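FAQ: What does the model actually see?

It sees only this:
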Amino acid sequence: MTSRARTGIGGAWACAVALAVALAGCSVVEPSSYAGPPVPAGTAATQAAASATVVPAPSAPAPTDTPAPPSTTATPVAPTPTPTPDCRGAKDERTSKAQPFVVCGIVVVSKNHRITKAYVPELTAVGLRLAVVSSASLTPDATAALRALFQAAKAKGHTLAVRFAYRSYALQDQMYQPGETYTAPPGASEHQTGLAVDLAAVVSGKQVRGFAFGTSSAGKWVREHAHEYGFILRYPSGGEKSTGYPYEPWHLRYVGVDEATKIKASGLTLEQYLRIP
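And it is asked to produce this:
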C-alpha cells in the first residue's frame, strides 16, 4: 500500500470517529404532546365509516291469511225469568167465613163460597137514578165506575136506573124464598159485597127491567160496553152450570177494568175464568 492510500484511510477513520463523538454529545428533545405526524382532514372519519358494520333495519312481517284465534271471553247469558205463579184455581181454605173468598184479587161470593152476616164492606151512596129502592150504595170504586157507566150511556141516548145495589145479610134473608131461582140465599149473594148492581132502563118515562132490559137498546149497549168501566155480566146465557144461576141480563158485577176486559174477551163465566167451582 502506498503512503497516499494509508493517508486516505486514516483520514476517513478520523472523520468517522469525530462524527460519532459529536452525535453522542447531542440529544433530540420532542414535545410531550406530540401525537405523530398530522392526519389529513377527513381521514379518521372516513376510516371509521369504512370500518363500521351496516346493520339493516328490521322489516315488518309479511301479512298472512291466518285468522285471529276466537275470543275466549264467554258471552253473558241472560237469566231465565221465574214464571209468575198462576193464582187461578185457588182452593177456598178459609177458616172463617166472616171475610169473602178472594182469587187473584177478585172477591167471590156464591153458593159454593159464602160469607156470614159479619161481613159489611165500606159503602158509598151511588147518587144515581133509582127504581124500586129508595137508596143504593156500593163500594167506593164500584160507585165511581157505575157513575161513569151511567154518564157514557146517557151520552149515547140511554137512561139507566139502579134497581138493587148493596143488600145486607138480613135483607137477603127476608127476600129469599127456598127454591127461588133468581134470588140467592143469605150469605151467598154478591149484593152483600157491595160490588153487584141490578139495572133497568127508562124509556119514555117507563121502566124497562128483567129480560126486557136485556133485549132493549140500553141493555144491549150495557152488555157491549160494561167491561170498559170495570163491570162484567155476572150470569151470562149458557153459564148456569158453572155460576149456579140462570141468565140475568140486568145483573152486573164490578171487578175492575183490567179483569173485566180479560173476562169479556175470554167469553167465560167468572168461575170458569178463575178455575174454581
